[in-house]
Amino acid sequence: MGPLAGIRVADFSNHAAGPQATMFLGLLGADVIRIESRRRLDIQRRPHAVYGRDRASTFDHLGLHKRSITLDLKSGGGHALALELVAVADVVVENFRPGVMARLGLSWDDCTRVNPRIVMVSLSTNGQEGPAARAPGYAPIFAAAGALGWITGYRNGPPVEIRNMMDHTAGLYACFAVLAALHARELSGQGRYVDLSAREVAITLAGESVVHGLRGQPVTRMGNEHENWVPHGVFPCSGDDRWLAIVCTNDREWATLASHIAEPWATSSTYRAVRGRIAHRRDLEDRVARWTGTQDRDRLAEELQARGLAAERSFDARDLVADSHLGTRCAIVEVSHPAHGRRRTVGSPWHLKGAAVVPTWSPELGAHNEAVLCGLLGHTTDELAGWIRDGIVY
Amino acid sequence: MFTDLRCVELSTHGSAAYAGRLLAAMGADVIKVEPPGGDPMRRVSMAGATAATNPWFEYLNAGKMSIVVDLASDRAPAELEALCAPAKVFITDLDPRELTPLGVSAPSSRTLMPLGLLCSITRFGWGRYRDLRGGELEVESFGGALIGTGSPDRPPLKLPLHQTVIQAGVVAATTVAAALLMEPTPRWIDIAEVGVWASVHHGPAVTSAQLTGRDRKRSGRHAEGQPFPHCLFRCSDGWIAIQASERDQFAQFVEMLGHPTWLMDRKFGSRLDMGSTNAAAVEHEAAAWFEGKSRAEVFDACRRHRIPAAPVRSIAEVLGDQSLMADGALVTSETSEKRSVTLPSFPAWFGGKRIPQLHRAPMLDEHSRVLRGADTLR
Question: Which one of A231, A233, A280, B150 is separated from A291 by 20 to 30 angstroms, measured CA to CA?
C-alpha cells in the first residue's frame, strides 16, 4: 500500500513525459487508468525502431503499475465515459498539445463541472498560453529551448544529445506538482489546475548557470572537467567501453592516487600541488588514462575505494541489472507478466517506510475495459458489448 | 500548498537543499541548519564568479531560514532535536558516517526526530556501499547516467552542472509530499542518489539489455536507437535540435530538405541507419540545405512544415527571452546583500497563477534568535 492508495488517476497522457509522471504516481500506490486508443496507438506500444516488439509490452516500462482502457474520445459515447471516469478520479494527467483536451470536451472547465475536487495537470512543451504554446516538442526540443542542451557537451566540442533525462524529469516535476495540489486540496477542499512547461523544467535544470549568466559571468560546456579538481574525469579501462570515474579533490588524494599508480611521472613535482595539476591538466589526465587503460575496471575501483579515493565504475544497463546493491534497494525490481513470466525493470528511486508498492507489469491494450467500465463505473457487460460493437470502446 | 508544513534541512552537497527549495517554493517553512562559517556552498563558485554570495547558493536556498548549529559539539544532538520538535520533516544529505554521531545509525533507527519524518539522501544508500566515497561524477557513473552520454569516440560525458543534486532533490521533495499524505506519516524515507539515476532514467535500457543484450551507446549529437532525424544540426550561427519521430513528420522533413525520394529509395538504409551508421553520409547530403541558414531560418521552415524543432539556445539567449520574464518563468528577488538576483521559478502555473515569489536566500544564522526564542517564525 503506497502513500497514494485510494487516489485514482485518469491518465490521458502518451509518449514519454506524461506517462512518466503517472508511472511515478502508480509507484506511489495510485490507481492509474490509462485511456488509450487503438487507432492512435501510443508510441510506447508500437514496435521499437531498434528493439522490435515483444508481446509482453516489453519496452513500455512507462506502463508499469497501470490499467488500460480504450475509448474513442471523439465519439459522444466515449466522451461521456471519459467524463464518468473523471467524476470518480482524483487526478487527471494529459500532455497533448494545448487545445486538444478542450476540443475533446475534457478541458479543466469540463472536468471541474463533473468533479470540483479534481486535480488536473497539463504538461506541454511551452505551457498552455503564450505565442509558443502550440509548438510541438519532444525531449531534445525542451532541452534546446531551455539552455540545458547548449551546456551539455565536451569542452571545446559541440552540444551533444542529453537523451532521456528531459522527459523523465518533466514527469517527475509533474508528479511533485500533483502531490502539492493534493495537499492544497486537503486544506481547501477544492481541486487545482496545474500548467507545467517542459522547457521551463529544462531551465530549472540549468538554474545555476542562469543565475551566473544574469551576472554577466560566462558559462561554457565543461565536459568532464572541474575547474578546481584535477584529475576529475572518466578514464578508460581494459576491455570494451569500460570506464572508471576518478576524482581527486585535494593534494592528499592526488598523492594517494599517485602512490597507487607507482610510476615516476605520477610523483613528479609538476603535479604535486593542485596549481600544477590544473596547469598541466590535459597532460596529466592523458597519462592517467594510459595507466587506467591497462587496469581492470572493477578491481581498480575496489582498490582505489579501499584507499579512500572517489572512484566509481561507469555502469551500463547490464551492470545495473546485475548489481545486487541496486537490487536490494529495489532500484531494479522483478515484475511478473501472466503470460511471459518474470522480467527485471526499474523500480522506485525511494524507500518509504511502510509504503512499499510492488509494481505490476504494463497492461495489454484495453485489458481493463470491463474492470473499469463495469466494475468501477457500474455499467453492464451488455452495455460494454454494445460500445465495443459501435466502436466507442475499441 | 504546504503552508502547514515546517521542515528542518541539513545539507552539505545540495540535494537536501534543492528538496528544501521546492518545498519552500510551495509554502513550507524550511529551516536551514548551517555549521559555523556557513554552508560550504556559500563559497563554492563557477569559474569567473565574483559575487560575494554564490549564485548556486542563492538558487538552492531561496525562501528559507538559517540557523547555525555546531554539529561537532556535544550539544548538537540536543539542539537539533529541539529544532526538529515542532517540525514534521527533517531532510538531510549528510552521509551515514556524518549522521551516526547525531544518533542516526540507519534511517529506521534513530533518536533524532523520534516522532516525525526523516528523509535521508545519501550518495550510495545505507547498505553495503554506505562508506563509498564519491561526488556527482561517481554517482552518475555508478547510476548509469554517464555511459550513454557523449560521443562514441570519446569518454562518457558527465551531465552538466549539478544534475544529481537537482534529480535527488526533486525525488526527495516528491517522496516527502507523498509521505505526508499518509496516515500515520511514515517515519523515514531513504533515497540513494545512485538509485535515482538507475531507476528513474533507465527503463528502456534496462529492459532491452536483458532481452536483446543491447545496451545504450554514446552517439554524440544523435539520439542512438532512434529514427532519423533525432539530432542536432549545424546552422550558420549555432545548432538546432530536430526530432521528427512520426512518419508524417519525416515526410515533411525530407520535403523541406528537397529530398522527397528519401522516403522511398532507402539509399541510406532505414531511418535508424540514417542516424547511426550512415549519419555522416546523410549529413553531407543534407548540409547543402542547412548551408548559410541561421537557426531562426531553419526554425521557421520547421514550423511551416510542422516539424518539432528548437534552436539550441545559450544561457544568454534564454535570459534575453523577454517572454520568460513576462511569464514569470524567471523572477527577480533580492539577495541577502540587498542585490537583485533573478531565479527560475517552479516550472508551472497553479490555478492560473505562478507560485508566489520566493523570498531571498537567508544570511548566515539570520533566524537564530527567533528560532531559539519565539514560537512564531514569521
Answer: B150
Task: Give every CB contact of residue B184 below 8 A, 6+ residues apart in sequence.
Answer: none
A125: nearest Cα among A91, A167, A83: A167
* Cα separation, A313 vs A331, whole angstroms: 17
DSSP state of A324: H
How many CB atoms lie under 10 A from the CB of residue A378? 10
H helices of A57-189, where?
76-87, 100-103, 108-114, 139-145, 165-188
Give yes or no for residue B377 having a pLDDT over 50: no
**What's the predicted TM-score (pTM) here?**
0.88
Q: Do B156 and A243 touch (CB under 8 A)?
A: yes
Does any CB of chain A come closer than 8 Å to the CB of residue B161? yes
What whole-number distance in Å separates Cα of residue A342 and Cα of residue A381? 32
Alpha helices in chain B (DSSP H): 15-25, 55-61, 76-84, 96-99, 136-142, 163-179, 193-200, 203-212, 247-257, 262-265, 271-275, 279-290, 295-304, 315-319, 322-327, 368-372
Number of Cβ within 10 Å of residue A63's Cβ equals 27
Interface test with B, best of A161, A220, A252 (most B CBs within 10 A): A161
**B292 to A366, B152, B281, B298: CA distances (angstroms):** 50, 28, 19, 10
pLDDT digits (tens, 9 = 90+) for A158-204: 888 886 788 889 999 999 999 999 999 998 999 999 999 988 898 88
Partners of A24 on chain B (C-beta within 8 Å) are 174
Task: Answer whether B69's CB lies under 8 Å from B76's CB.
Answer: yes
Q: Supply the DSSP symbol for A191.
A: -
Q: B34 and B59 in contact (C-beta within 8 Å)?
A: no
| Angstroms from A168 CA to nearest CA on chain B | 6
Distance (Å, whole) CA B30 – CA B117? 14
DSSP string, B272-320: HHHHTTTHHHHHHHHHHHHTT--HHHHHHHHHHTT--EEE---HHHHHT
Kind and range of the H or E element at B67?
strand B65-68
**Residue matched to cell numbers 503506497:** A2
CB atoms within 10 A of CB A347: 26
pLDDT, tens digit, 9 for 90 and up, residues A106-137:
999 999 999 999 999 999 988 898 878 887 78
Measured between alpha carbons, how far is A170 from A267 in angstroms, rounded to an integer?
Answer: 47
- Beta-carbon separation of B181 and A3 below 8 A: yes
To which H or E segment does residue A19 belong? helix A17-27
**The three grid cell numbers given for residue B87, joined into one nine-digit string:** 517540525
**Could B226 and A49 be called an inter-chain contact, meaning their C-beta atoms sit closer than 8 Å?**
yes
- Segment B196-215, tens digit of pLDDT: 888 888 777 776 676 667 77
What is the edge-to-edge ordering of all strands in the sheet holding B348-350? Answer: A66-70, A31-36, A8-11, A91-94, A119-124, A192-197, B348-350, B353-354
